[in-house]
Amino acid sequence: MPEDFIIGAKLSELVDGVVASYKHDPRTQHIGKLYLPSRDEIIQLVRDLLELLYPGFIGRQHLTDHNVAFHVGDLLPRIGETAFKQVYQCMLYADETGSSESADTGSPDDRARKATIAFLESIPSIRERLAGDVQASYDGDPAALNTDEIILAYPGLLAISIHRLAHKLYELDVPLMARIMAEWAHNQTGVDIHPGAKIGRNFFIDHGTGVVIGETTDIGDFVKVYQGVTLGALSFPKDERGRVIRRVKRHPTVCDRVTLYANAIVLGGETVIGENSVVGGSVFVTSSVPPDSVVTFKPPELRLRSRTGEIAPAEELAKKAEEAPPSDVTEMPDYMI
After folding, report:
1. C-alpha to C-alpha distance for 97 and 255, rounded to whole angstroms
2. Which CATH class is domain 33-191?
3. Which DSSP symbol is given to 226?
4. Where are the alpha helices (DSSP H) in the chain?
5. Which of 50, 102, 105, 204 is the right S-S partner for 173, CB 3.0 to 4.6 Å?
6. Other C-beta atoms within 10 Å of 53: how many?
7. How far apart, in whole angstroms, are the C-alpha atoms of residue 180 and residue 185?
């Protein structure tokens, strides 16, 4: 067994090196500043909010009509206290760094109290939206046994649940907090939704992994998205000094009742996918699509190589196809797992 490691005389030199790196580049340190929200407390707040959104499923179980009001009465003040503390820290941070975009000129305390109350008052309407999302998930996935399974297990529902909370904070001009919540959801589910994205009713993300939805995306009602879909920016507009112009429409608009199949990529702030349209798997779209359209691409040529290294001629493949027994499948399905 080796002896304990002791830095010894090298300690002072190592400390000086690390501290010098702090002073060399201020972008990766927060020293000499007072205000910053707590990432850990915000994540715990999200967990508590999920318990409030889905009572009996998340957190305390065995709730009844007799004790549910007591449960909410115990949980809500704790949520409110943590939310106010973190919102207040975010307001102070914005003032300290000069990054506030709020039109409210009141004190940080007043702004934080207004935002916290507005956020808490939105919980019933958020729950109403999520009920539609749960139903859309059940209606859209034949593998789902019931809606309970969706609430307990589906990453897409977890992602949209946290997004609807984060989006409200985004609307209230609370800096940092919404993004911390969204990126925690990204870490948990593989679904990356910017809190600024506007998402309508009865939204369903199937499978979830790799979905990316940008900040200025507008999504209508009854939209279905599969894994790997990207709703992104085609380019980043810049000002005369070459700096990226923020909060302009950079991401697409997806209208009502659109389906986006796996790995579809739709880019650009002027791109509109018309209602009732279907965008096929792996399609790359950078211009608008009219309503009631089906967007696909011509499949690449299939080449068959034998184990000896020979490539079968096209006519031989065609002959084999003609000699093959008839299939019951008359057309390719839209999607299959």
Report:
1. 38
2. mainly alpha
3. -
4. 11-24, 39-53, 68-97, 108-121, 123-140, 147-153, 155-171, 177-189, 314-323
5. 102
6. 18
7. 9
- Looking at per-residue pLDDT, the higher value among 282 and 307 belongs to 282
Pair of tokens at residue 60: 């305390």
Q: What is the mean pLDDT of the chain?
A: 91
Backbone angles phi, psi at 254, to 5 degrees: -115, 115
**Where residue 330 falls among pLDDT bands split at 50, 70, 90?**
very low
Which residues face 192 on adjacent strands? 212
The domain segmentation of the chain, as residue ranges, is 33-191, 210-296
Residue 113, token pair as written in the block: 């109290």
Residue 291 and residue 281: Cα distance in Å, rounded? Answer: 18
Q: Does domain 210-296 have CATH number 2.160.10.10?
A: yes
Question: Can you tell me whether residue 232 is helix, strand or coil?
Answer: strand
Question: For residue 209, what are its two tokens?
Answer: 């992994």
Q: How many whole angstroms separate alpha carbon 285 and alpha carbon 292?
A: 16
Helix 39-53 with 155-171: angle, nearest 10 deg: 110
